[in-house]
Amino acid sequence: MSNSLEEWAERIFARDRRAMARAISAVESGEAGGIELLKLLFPKSGSAYVVGVTGSPGVGKSTLVEKLAAEYRAVGTTVGIVAVDPTSPFTGGAILGDRIRMQAVAVDEGVYIRSMATRGHLGGLAPAVQDVVTILDAAGCQVILVETVGVGQDEVEIARHADVTVLLLAPGMGDDVQTFKAGVLEIADVFVVNKADRPGADRVEQEVTAMLGLSERREGWNPPVLKTVATTGAGIAALREALDRFRAFGEQDLRRLLRRREQWRTCLMELLRQRLLEKALDALDEGALNARVEDILAQRRDPHTAAEELLSTFMSGKGKLAGK
Amino acid sequence: MSNSLEEWAERIFARDRRAMARAISAVESGEAGGIELLKLLFPKSGSAYVVGVTGSPGVGKSTLVEKLAAEYRAVGTTVGIVAVDPTSPFTGGAILGDRIRMQAVAVDEGVYIRSMATRGHLGGLAPAVQDVVTILDAAGCQVILVETVGVGQDEVEIARHADVTVLLLAPGMGDDVQTFKAGVLEIADVFVVNKADRPGADRVEQEVTAMLGLSERREGWNPPVLKTVATTGAGIAALREALDRFRAFGEQDLRRLLRRREQWRTCLMELLRQRLLEKALDALDEGALNARVEDILAQRRDPHTAAEELLSTFMSGKGKLAGK
After folding, report:
1. A1: buried, middle or exposed (CB in 10 Å: 19+, 13-18, 0-12)?
2. Which of A275, A313, B89, B232 is the Cys-Cys partner for B94 at CB 3.0 to 4.6 Å?
């Protein structure tokens, strides 16, 4: 087993697509083998530039990600794409035409695309995304584009875990200003007004610029506000240049290190939480859990007391909890 | 302290708004007193009808919630509103005009409105929302409207925890079909096409109806597809009637009990996870955690190994972990 794990890792270092796909599936489904594999991959990771792309449904994230991938390919960079966006054509949330279009990048050997389910991750989505990024990174993807929907707590967390966070906006979405209020403004390093050929694009750009003027200056980096038309590719090269500038900026001093430190700290806490729950669930028997649920339903016990009781039995190390 | 806790609970049963506000703040900030209070409130809860209202930003959730609250007030029902939507005017994510408009319901003594932060809840958002619902329920709110953004894992979970889930759509949002793909279709009991006076409303209605025809029939309940214009109030009375019908339907047989059993089970697991993490964090010293983060940054250790090590030290009951 340990021998075959090492072979598996070697095949990933050699960018074998089937080995990569199998690794991601193993990690997603929480197989023990997947985690052991990650331990072998981790020392070879850490050099990819992770670009988080977030925004509301309908602003054109997937199209922009596709064009940005092609732009990186044009300068010889290998690209990984992780779509954790339930509305993305990569994850299946799109009409057929979009998916066919995506195949233009999908058939390029220098691009690896992977979608992830946004539900059912016991320990939250962010650590699962981190694991997939580690696999793509170890497989030599030089840039990894992570596409998420920018509404919802988990999704914002994922965007925050990237080396650079791009917030995509579009005119006529009706929720631009509202999105800012949700705190996304503070986490974006680069702003992009997509669909810039449509009426209202200038207004969106002005609003963003005005809001940036009001917000606290971030030491040394003024988040640029770019315009793109992802469908035609207009502005994509300038976006790549801005991302390169941010990367160079981040490598000054200890900035990137500080950011990664915070990210790994959050990731470690999340993993710890996940493992603890797994341990507790292993120790709980179904009967004990069900009995507590019936108590709550009958209002004999409140949920907090029930949780405390289950926990204290677990912590006292009695192993399997009694049925009642 | 126990005496004052009981007084506090009594004031909540008497619908004292300041006592309610203080309880919600205590619960939100995780004060120990808040949880003790919940234990006193819980036996008096359980009779409210919890209505989850979800949908993309911009479909008009807050306006609909406001009008629905007024509709319930018109038939003498007391209403609680919980906004866990970062784009809601209730939570502060709206332009001034919206907020002023909201004051029409806000000044009614029979309506209690509370917004919740969507971030920073250690144990996830869903149990925190459940706690706020318990407080409003114990205070005698007969109907509790929970407004969430229908994108993102946590938000969908919250909608699922209601007695009835309303999915709001609107023409011209561009993401209607995509939203369905994300699995929201399966959890909605009532569909509402808002902004029904705009072009495209009929098409949205037809799409939903067609999709419902394709999906598996739910035993005994065909989710209705209603049309509203929340700004004028058109269709709101019919929505309330549909909600009443669903409530009566749910009380047939054991349906409501089965649904609540599943909800409490999920809630209990989530609380258990939260408490476990708190315990682990108490036991961890900062030095140990920081040392592991530095190991990961230097790639001396992968995050999974680091989490396992922290966990096994915690489980072995050594209390405070050593600094390295």
Report:
1. exposed
2. B89
Q: What does the alpha-carbon distance between residue B70 and residue B81 come to, in Å, rounded to a whole number? A: 11
> In the Cβ-directed half-sphere of B245, how many Cα atoms lie within 13 Å?
13
User: Residues for chain A: how many in total?
Assistant: 324
Chain A residues within an 8 Å CB radius of B281? 269
Span A271-290, pLDDT tens digits: 887 788 777 777 777 788 89
Q: Is the dihedral of CA B253, B244, B151, B219 positive or negative?
A: positive
Cβ burial of A187 (10 Å; 0-12, 13-18, 19+) is middle
Neighbours of B149 (CB within 10 A): 30
Local confidence band at B136 (pLDDT 50, 70, 90 cut-offs): very high
DSSP state of B221: B
The band of B13, judged by pLDDT with boundaries at 50, 70 and 90, is very high
Q: Is A57 on the interface with B (CB under 8 A)?
A: yes
Alpha helices by DSSP H, listed for chain B, are: 2-13, 17-28, 32-41, 61-74, 96-106, 125-138, 153-160, 176-179, 185-187, 201-214, 236-251, 255-283, 286-297, 303-315
Between residues 77 and 116 of chain A, which touch chain B (CB distance below 8 Å)? 86-87, 92-95
Helices (H) and strands (E) counted in chain A, each on its own, are 14, 7
Selected for mutation to probe chain B from A87, A96, A285 (highest B CB count within 10 Å) is A87
CATH homologous superfamily for the domain A45-254: P-loop containing nucleotide triphosphate hydrolases (3.40.50.300)
B168-213 per-position pLDDT tens digit: 988 876 544 455 545 566 778 899 999 999 988 998 898 888 878 7
CB pairs < 8 Å spanning A and B: 217
CA distances from A105 to A147, A233, B110 (A): 15, 14, 57
d(CA B280, CA B310): 9
Distances (CA, A) of A22 to A135, A143, B104, B128, B304: 11, 21, 57, 37, 19
- What is the token pair recorded at B31? 């004060």
Decide: A138 and A45 in contact? Cβ < 8 Å: yes
Closest CA to A293 of B125, B146, B265: B265
Residue B70: pLDDT over 50: yes
Q: For residue B60, what are its two tokens? A: 């008009």
- At A8 the three-state DSSP class reads helix
The Cα–Cα gap between A123 and A272 comes to: 9
Closest CA relative to residue A311, chosen from A268, A276, A275, A270: A276
What predicted TM-score, i.e. pTM, was given to this entire model? 0.67
Please provide residue A164's backbone torsions phi and psi, each rounded to the nearest 5 degrees. -145, 140
CA distance A233 to A252: 30
CATH number assigned to the domain covering B45-264: 3.40.50.300
Contact B321, B283 (CB under 8 A): yes
Set of chain B residues whose Cβ sits within 8 Å of the Cβ of A211: none
Residue B103 phi, psi dihedral angles, 5° rounding: -65, -20
Asked if B69 contacts B51 with a C-beta cutoff of 8 angstroms, the reply is: no
Q: Name, in order, each residue with C-beta under 8 angstroms of A289's C-beta and a sequence gap of 6 or more.
A: A310, B265, B268, B269
B196-255 residues touching A, CB cutoff 8 A: none
Helix (H, G, I), strand (E, B) or coil at A220: coil
